[in-house]
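# step 3/5: fold
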Amino acid sequence: MKRIGITGGIGAGKSAASEWLRKQGFAVYDTDREAKRLMVESDEIRKALTDKFGDRVYKDGKLNREYLASWVFVDETARRFVNGVVHPVVISDFMSWSYGTGADVVFVESAILNECNLKDIVDGVIYVDAPEEIRIARTMHRDHASREDVLKRIQSQKQPKGNVTFAIDNSGTFDDLARQMEQLVATEGWTINGREDKKSKAVGSTDKKQGTFRKKFWATVGILFALSVVWVVILKWLPIWFTPLMLRRAIEAPLEGREVHFERKWVSLDEISPKYISACIASEDNLFATHYGFSEKGIKQAWESNKKGGKLRGGSTISQQTAKNVFTFGTRTWFRKGVETYFTVLIELIWGKERIMEVYCNIAELGDGVYGVEAASQKYFHKSAKKLNVEQAALMAAALPSPRRYSISNPGPYMRKRRGQIARLIPKMRKFPPNE
C-alpha cells in the first residue's frame, strides 16, 4: 500500500485536488475534518483536554471551540499541548483507516503535513501551489475575510521542507488542475483498489482477477497468523525492552515540549515482591488467576456502555492490558480492540499466567518515561522491586490506571485513599503463582 500526502498553503487548492481524487473513486483522509471528529469521540483526547483546560472545554457533549481557542491562540504552550494530544491519535486513526480501505494507494490531506509528523509515514507528497495574490483572492472570497487577515494566515503557515514529490500548479481553472491530476495519476500508475477502470475490462478478466485476489488475501491472512504465533512464542522467552506505547510516548514528548527519556529494567517474576503482584491483582483484576483472559462482568459493562453510545470500553483484565501495551499503540478504536482481543487469546494460550504477569509488571507505565516495577521502585523508593513493602506496592498499583496523572512521588488525597484500600486487600489475595 502506498500513502500519499496532499498539502499546500491556504488558498492554493489542496482541497480541490483531494475532491478530484474522491470523484475518481480514490480514498482520501481529511486530517482537519477527522481531527474535529476525534476531539469529540476519542476518550483519550477528551480526558487530556479536560484535565488541562477544565470541564468547560466540552459543552453539552461537544467541543467548546471558542473556549479552547481562547487558550491556544494566545498561549503557545497550550497550542503545543493540544497538538501533542491530538496529532498522535489522528495518525493512529489514519493508519487504521488506510488498512481498512483495502486500497493499493490512499491519500491524506493535511495543511500541516510536516508539523504533525505525517510526512514520516507517507510515500510521497503532492504539493499544490499558486501565486500568493491568487491565494489571497481565493481565501478572501471563500472566507469573507480581509486581505490583512489572510496575509497573517499565509505568513503563519510553514512551507514544506524539501519533501515535495509531486508539484501541482493551481494558478489556472479547476479544469487545468484536473488535467494535471489526471496526468499525475496516469504517470504514477495509481489505480482504485489496484484495478483498472471497470469499463475497459472483460467479465472473464474480472472473475479471474477476483479469484486471484481472494487467493492472495487468504494466503496473506495465513502468513500473518503464522507470523503472529511465532512472534508470541519468541516473546514468551525474551525480555521485552520496547513497546508500541513507548514509541507513542517518544512521538508525543517533543510535540509537548518535553525530552524523550526511558527508565526501565527487566527483572524476572521471582525478583518482584509478591506484595506488588497481589496489589496489581487487587487493584486491576482480582480474577486474573482464574479467568481465560476476559472478564465476563467487565465485558457486560463495556457492552452496555458502548451500546448506549458511551465511551469505547473493554474488559480491562491484566491479560488484555498486557496485549494492548505489547502489540498495539493503545488508541481507542474498534480496530485496536480487535487486535488486542486476538493477542489476548494468543498470550493466554502460549504464555500462561506467570509470563503474562511478568511482562505486565515489566512494561506497565508508572510515570513519565518510567516503565516497569523495577525502574519505578528504584526511582521512587531507592530499592529493588523485591523489597517493596505493602504500602509502597499499594501506592504504585494505585497509579496504574493513569500513571501520568497520579503521582507516586507526591501522592494526593485520592492516591493516599486508594493506597489504603489496596493495602487492606493485599493480605486477602490468594498467593500468586498458586503452585509456589
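# step 4/5: annotate
Confidence is low (pLDDT under 50) at residues 195-203, 310-314.
# step 5/5: archive (pending)
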